[in-house]
Amino acid sequence: MTLFIGVSCKKNDPGPSLVLNDLYGGPVNLSITSSQLNVDVPIDQLLIADFSTALDTATVKLAVSLSQNNVAVAFKISYLNNLQTISVKPLVNLLYNQPYQLKLSTVLKGRKGESFSGVTVNFTTIAASLNLISFKVDGVDYTNQSQVTNISLSPSFEFNFSTALNQNTSASNFFITGKNPGVLNVSLSNQNKTLTLKASNQFNQLDKYATGILANLTGSNGEIYKGYTKSFYTKADPIPKFPTITDDQLLDLVQKQTLKYFYDFGHPTSGMARERDTSGDIVTTGGSGFGLMALVVGINRGFISRADGVARFNKIITFLEKADRFHGAWPHWMNGNTGKVIPFSTNDDGADLVETSYMAQGLITVRQYLTASDTVGNNLINRINTLWKDIEWDWFRKADANGQNPQNVLYWHWSPDKAWIMNFPLYGYFEEQITYFMAAASPTHTIPLIVYTNGFTQNGGIKTGNTYTYNGESYVLPLGTPSPLFWVQYSYLGLNPHFTDNNTNTDYWVQNVNASLINHAYCAANPKKFVAYSDSCWGLTASDNPTGYNAQSPANDNGTISPTAALSSMPYTPTQSINAMKFFYYTLGDRLWGPYGFYDAFNISSGWTATSTLAIDQGPIIVMIENYRTQLLWNLFESAPEVQAAKIKLGFTP
């Protein structure tokens, strides 16, 4: 290749002077006024100078010099264009990324004696590319692997390069980011082409780190490296983070610790459950309904005394009696001091029928647990009955403007000033079967069967019967598609899913078990290759995640595992759920275990663990573990005469 460096000079100056027209270094046109422009000159191409007239060759060799940091560079001169152009060819390639000076002195003359004023041009050669040949961790080559997982807690990193490194830049331009790696120890080998990096501190297990190279790294001859970053994830530490206990003891511990969210952290005025651990005075209707059932478990297992538990029931019921209600339904959120509605969204500032159904499920369960012969218990039973009977389920069928022709579907929301603006009819299979069930069970504001079959079952339209296969195991899902697991939990905290809905010929036990098995199998197969997913690390449902809150599922998987998903599936998948519980407790330890049980979620691929706890996630853990152990909540709820009547009315059979 030919390298041209060009400088534009005066081409038509009058007088007997020799003028430099252009100066090139390979393809780079060199400036005689600004050396900052003279960069990226190739190391292996000619320097070309073009003049206004033919040169006196006797003066050329005396006038031309080339140097690098004041050290002369040997070169050969050739002539072109009838002696008007000279080429300067260094005898050896120039060095990468180095400053050079080309000088054409006043000794230079034209062939007819024309004088030359002299030119000095500074330029910098192109930076060489320093190439990373391989990247290894503990001897395993990860150069071409996009994901680096299961790395030891004290790994050794090896970077192999195409050329020797500059020892003065190597130590300071390698890094490890993550939780407290400590001091980085750097060593060179293989004629300085291999750098080994090791951190002084042991890494955290199942955590995200990154290692790499800054752009200031150079080779021994000035070669430049453009930078490199590689994320990696450490493996699980098999040593238990807490003392090992029996599975029954661990179940007790998880239930007892999680109950603290509802009892110890319950709102001091209302006794209700706060929406989350940072919600202040915002209390939640549905989560408090779950909390009522959790308190029953706490009393029954001796985590709190019966007197304390009944006192808390009384506080909550007293609050509910005075709180805002809209046609008997409570809002999603309320102020725990005043009972006034706190809008869940701009238009959601009134009744929430789904949340109300979760509360009603809890109230009926508490009523069945209380003793009618006890004065305090009988008082609470009567007050619960009043709250229960005042819920106008049938009004949420949204009649016309004249109050006639109610629709054969229930609506989720109603606002006192915006009416039905939310416009959310409860069509189809998701979390709300209990809403239709409680409406059918109401002794005062019931709904006919057609509202259930047209609304929830969509006249059989919710039937799918698709098969899902993971790792060679196949599961048939009678309804819908693989969902967030709260769909098979919230409605069945009290309602025992051991029944067949004859309207669609659906066995809900099969539905809920297979939905849970699919969720587990999907995580174990891990088709998206998220870090830590396994047979014992699974569970996708609605929860906090690294970017906010979302309903995770096999169809909406972002790498976030929610402990409530697996633990609240314990009646359906006891072995898989207990394995998950032990992984969460023993392996993740205090990273996931907090003052109110397990934190809400974690995403190891994103290097994130929640510090939050939510009522709607903590409650089902206690309740469904108990239903797995003793079926206590199922038995209590199912003992209610209204429940038995509703099952007959809706065509539910064992």
CATH topology of the largest domain: Glycosyltransferase
CATH top-level class of the largest domain: Mainly Alpha
Instruction: Summarize model confidence as the mean pLDDT.
Output: 95
The main pleated sheet reads as:
5 strands, antiparallel
**β content, as a range?**
15-25%
Strand tally, please?
32
Structure explained in plain terms:
The chain is an alpha+beta fold and 654 residues long. It folds into three domains: 105 residues, Sandwich (Immunoglobulin-like); 102 residues, Immunoglobulin-like (Sandwich); 407 residues, Glycoside hydrolase 144 (GH144) (Glycosyltransferase, Alpha/alpha barrel), CATH 1.50.10. The chain is built from 15 helices and 32 strands. The chain has a five-stranded antiparallel sheet, with no helix packed on it. It has a five-stranded antiparallel sheet with strand order 11-10-12-15-14, with no helix packed on it. Strand 30 and strand 31 form a beta hairpin. It is elongated, with a radius of gyration of 38 Å.
